[in-house]
Design a protein that fits this description.
Layout: E1 2-8, H1 14-25, E2 29-31, H2 32-39, H3 45-54, H4 67-74, H5 78-106, H6 115-124, E3 129-133, E4 148-153, H7 156-167, H8 171-179, H9 184-190, E5 193-196, H10 201-217, E6 225-226
Parallel strand pairs: 1-3, 1-4, 2-3, 4-5, 5-6
The protein binds adenosine-5'-triphosphate (ATP).
Adenosine-5'-triphosphate (ATP) binds near residues 11, 12, 135, 197 and 204.
Length: about 230
């Protein structure tokens, strides 16, 4: 089974790549950001802790967490960012662990199937691969959850431009958010595979295809592959 840990910097193209892997290869995609949002749903114990820490003003009139206000606090204060991550990361890790357990059990249920069913299952669907999108894969020490790590790379200038365009951030806000994470260069150092998204979408997706094919023929563990 392959559990691909997809990471990168903010706005480098993780979602673009994971959407492609889902649409073209039908791989399930599990996204840390979705679990992170789940963690702070109204009524959740973690949201209760956040309110206790920041006060009732951190809640919008509709009962949801005011993510924008919280972002302004934590992206300007490392200590607060660390505190918040400590509340949320264990929940996110637990969700991944549960998914992995369930996925392994589901994919091991061959006992009551015919040999033909089993072989067609293995050869046609590639369904023993899952993509885990984890922006803080290295920072949150979640690499033990995956069998290979991919970093999606783009230049700092491209990150800034994409964030300004997509999220309507100011240049300063974009810089601040990018600088709060481990540097992209360090992530690339740590990755098994670096996918370069500093050019066109077409070139990006060709590299993704290469990475999938490369991995099918090689055990990536401990290797470094740059697909440029
Ligand atoms: P985040 O860290 O915020 O979740 P992300 O890493 O998932 O971001 P995407 O959402 O995939 O990044 O991409 C960021 C923005 O850049 C999107 O609007 C996307 O359409 C655009 N984008 C990504 N790759 C390219 C590319 N090669 N050329 C042009 N635009 C791109």
């Amino acid at each position: 089974m392959r559990f691909i840990g997809l990471t990168g910097g903010i706005g480098t193209g993780k979602t673009t790549v994971s959407n492609y892997l889902h649409q073209s290869y039908q791989f399930p995609v599990w996204d840390a950001d979705i679990y992170g949002r789940e963690a702070v749903q109204p009524g959740s114990p973690i949201l209760g802790d956040i309110v206790e820490h920041y006060g009732q003003n951190i809640i919008l009139p509709n009962g949801n967490l005011d993510r924008q206000q919280l972002g302004e606090i934590v992206f300007n204060n490392q200590k607060e960012l660390h505190w918040l991550e400590q509340q949320i990361h264990p929940y996110v890790r637990h969700r991944f662990e549960e998914n992995i357990k369930y996925f392994i059990i589901k994919n091991s249920e061959f006992n009551d199937k015919t040999f033909q069913q089993i072989t067609s299952y293995q050869t046609t669907s590639q369904n023993s691969t899952v993509v885990l999108v984890i922006p803080l894969l290295f920072e949150a020490k979640m690499t033990d959850l995956v069998t290979e790590t991919w970093v999606i790379y783009s230049t700092l200038q491209q990150q800034i431009e994409r964030l300004i365009k997509r999220d309507r951030l100011t240049e300063k806000q974009a810089y601040t958010r990018i600088n709060n994470q481990m540097s992209l260069a360090e992530k690339c150092e740590k990755a098994d595979i670096v996918v370069d998204n500093s050019s066109t979408l077409d070139i990006l997706l060709k590299q993704v295809d290469s990475a999938i094919a490369y991995q099918q023929n090689n055990s990536v563990s401990g290797r470094k592959k740059n697909l440029n």
